[in-house]
């Protein structure tokens, strides 16, 4: 039994078809534009993986349509100014952006000052060590209370000031390390942006008395990011090897750590990833099927070109004596299948039941991704007539 022909989108998409996966090729022409991005970087926040670099967002979305943009419905193009058009903001939004810009600027200045102070302290320490090493030590009477140096500053005060400076510097670097790096990159790439500010319509009298004016945004404060699901992130890291996932402190996570953390964060991660990997390997673009009551939905070529063709339902086939396997949802019921069939017919989609057969395994086997090669997948096309 074959699937129906997918329905193309009526409106022509401005996005051209690109490579199906974000991997590099030596002689292929698809990857010339993104040849410098062999490995992408994402940050795990507990629920998803965030990619914040604009070029990496564009590459991941165009080559395989991975992830969901945080501020755009489809292609991540929030904040991109059209030709001969200005971005329109109301007065409240503009004032809020100015506050964010001022805060970011202060953080950048504080970080630069602290770095300069740290470099000065390191240089003075090196000079002091060099001078003490060159001079010979001779016994002399020293006051136990204070030792005066550097124009009357005491050693005790100097130590206290160094301790305070060190603690403040560590605190600042821990809290704003990622935000400052993002701010620097944004300030280098797009420092100035013209926006059209329109007065708020708080009162009825102001509805006909608008006072628009043009302002220049010195620092871009609203930045769009790309959210990758756990299945997409592990597929890019494990199957393709093109994504390096880090925690919020900037520490890279290994594949084994990713497997354990994702499995702990999402109880049905294993069966979802098995199904995701299976359909991705067959050439489908896999997206979340929550809107249609399923686990996934399948696109041909990508969402900009065709409507979703299939709704995927995952059913676990678990051995009777299996341990440490989550099966909270259980098997599909007739009521659920009948409901999904009616909805699928309404939106012109097929239903595929993806039966995942679990292997015999122990708790130790479940904690390693190599257990994936022991899973078996079967497809069942479900039709009412």
UniProtKB/TrEMBL annotation:
**Has keyword Transferase?**
no
Give start-end ranges for the coiled-coil region(s).
Answer: none
**Molecular function (GO) terms listed?**
nucleic acid binding; tRNA-intron lyase activity
Chain intervals with Polar residues compositional bias: 120-139
Give the record's GO biological process terms: tRNA-type intron splice site recognition and cleavage
Q: Which reaction does it catalyse?
A: pretRNA = a 3'-half-tRNA molecule with a 5'-OH end + a 5'-half-tRNA molecule with a 2',3'-cyclic phosphate end + an intron with a 2',3'-cyclic phosphate and a 5'-hydroxyl terminus
Regarding protein family, the annotation reads: Belongs to the tRNA-intron endonuclease family.
Protein name, UniProt field: tRNA-intron lyase
Q: Give the taxonomic lineage as stored in the record.
A: Eukaryota, Metazoa, Ecdysozoa, Arthropoda, Hexapoda
């Amino acid at each position: 039994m074959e699937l129906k022909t997918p329905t193309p989108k009526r409106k022509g998409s401005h996005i051209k078809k690109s490579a199906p996966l974000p991997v590099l090729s030596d002689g292929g022409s698809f990857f010339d534009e993104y040849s410098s991005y062999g490995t992408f970087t994402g940050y795990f926040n507990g629920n998803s993986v965030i990619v914040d670099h604009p070029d990496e967002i564009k590459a991941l979305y165009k080559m395989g349509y991975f992830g969901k943009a945080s501020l755009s419905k489809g292609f991540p193009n929030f904040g991109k100014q059209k030709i001969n058009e200005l971005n329109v903001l109301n007065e409240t939004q503009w004032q809020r952006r100015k506050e964010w810009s001022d805060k970011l600027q202060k953080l950048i200045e504080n970080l630069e000052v602290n770095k300069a102070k740290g470099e000065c302290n390191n240089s003075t320490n090196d000079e002091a060590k060099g001078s003490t090493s060159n001079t010979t030590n001779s016994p002399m009477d020293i006051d136990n209370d204070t030792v005066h140096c550097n124009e009357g500053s005491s050693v005790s005060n100097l130590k206290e000031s160094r301790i305070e400076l060190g603690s403040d510097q560590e605190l600042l670097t821990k809290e704003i390390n990622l935000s400052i790096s993002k701010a620097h990159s944004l300030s280098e790439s797009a420092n100035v942006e013209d926006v059209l500010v329109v007065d708020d319509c708080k009162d009825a009298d102001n509805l006909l008395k608008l006072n628009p004016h043009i302002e220049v945004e010195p620092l871009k404060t609203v930045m769009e990011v790309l959210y990758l699901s756990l299945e997409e992130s592990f597929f890019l890291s494990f199957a393709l090897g093109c994504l390096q996932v880090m925690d919020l402190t900037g520490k890279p996570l290994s594949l084994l750590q990713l497997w354990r953390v994702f499995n702990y964060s999402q109880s049905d991660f294993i069966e979802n990833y098995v199904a995701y990997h299976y359909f991705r390997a067959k050439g489908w673009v896999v997206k979340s099927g929550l809107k249609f009551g399923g686990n996934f939905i399948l696109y041909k070529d990508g969402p900009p070109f065709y409507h979703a063709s299939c709704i995927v339902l995952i059913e676990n086939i678990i051995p009777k004596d299996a341990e440490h396997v989550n099966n909270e949802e259980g098997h599909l019921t007739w009521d659920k299948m009948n409901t999904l069939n009616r909805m699928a017919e309404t939106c012109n989609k097929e239903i595929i039941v993806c039966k995942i057969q679990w292997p015999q395994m122990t708790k130790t086997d479940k904690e390693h991704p190599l257990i994936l090669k022991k899973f078996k997948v079967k497809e069942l096309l479900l039709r009412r007539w």
